[in-house]
Amino acid sequence: MPHAAGIYEELSADECLELLRAHNFGRIAVAVDGQPIALPVNYSLDGDSVVFRTDPGTKLRGAAMGRVAFEIDGTDESSRSGWSVIVQGVGTDITDALDFRSAQLRLLETNPWVPGEIASWIEILPQSITGRRLRREDPQPS
Q1: Are 71 and 29 in contact (CB under 8 A)?
Q2: CA–CA distance from 115 to each of 78, 118, 137 (Å)?
Q3: DSSP category for residue 37
Q4: 92 — alpha (psi -120 to 50), left (phi > 0) or beta?
Q5: Are the C-beta atoms of residues 74 and 59 closer than 8 Å to each other?
Q6: Which of 63, 73, 89, 98 could cross-link 84 (Cys pair, CB 3.0–4.6 Å)?
Q7: Taking the alpha carbons of 108, 114, 115, 118 in that order, is the dihedral positive or negative?
Q8: Which CATH architecture has domain 5-132?
Q9: Rounded distance, CA 6 to CA 98, Å?
Q10: Hey, which of 3-12, 97-106, 129-138 has the most confident mean pLDDT?
């Protein structure tokens, strides 16, 4: 009996940005004390920059002026298909920045799920944005 095969495809930059614009929840991956950690965040996208708010702590300490990765994904377990987008770049703490761009970014709606003030802002300046999709291909009848 033939089985379904997966088709793996790279997403274009435009497809990656479209997916980033369509969602608002992802994971920030940072290194803290030499150890990698990925943590959930609500985010907004401005151009190709990812912006999120956080409290002082692991995310702020690891992301501010550090190399970071940010990832979003979607899956459909029943069809064994899905996609992911990864933004790699440098995190910048824009909480107290006085430049016009940082002030504009702080106006973005990020809607953190965690209660509280969540007063610190991080912008991820991307150095690369890549994406992949895996979809199932049903076998052709013999």
Answers
A1: yes
A2: 34, 8, 43
A3: E
A4: beta
A5: no
A6: 73
A7: negative
A8: Roll (2.30)
A9: 49
A10: 97-106
Query: How far is 110 from 54, CA to CA, in rounded Å?
Result: 10
CB contact set of 58 (below 8 Å; sequence gap of 6+): 30, 32, 37, 39
59 vs 16, more confident: 16
118's tokens: 């969540």
CA torsion 57-94-40-34 (nearest 10°) is: -50
Place of tokens 């209660």: 115
Phi, psi of 21 (to 5 degrees): -70, -30
In this structure, the number of other CB atoms found within 10 A of the CB of residue 77 comes to: 7
Q: Are 8 and 81 a contacting pair, CB within 8 Å?
A: no
3-state secondary structure of 15: helix
- Quickly state the pLDDT bin for 60 (edges 50, 70, 90): confident
Domain ranges across the chain: 5-132
* Contact call for residues 70 and 40 (beta carbons, < 8 A): no
Report how far residue 64's alpha carbon sits from residue 52's, in angstroms, rounded to the nearest whole number.
Answer: 12
At residue 14, does pLDDT exceed 90? yes
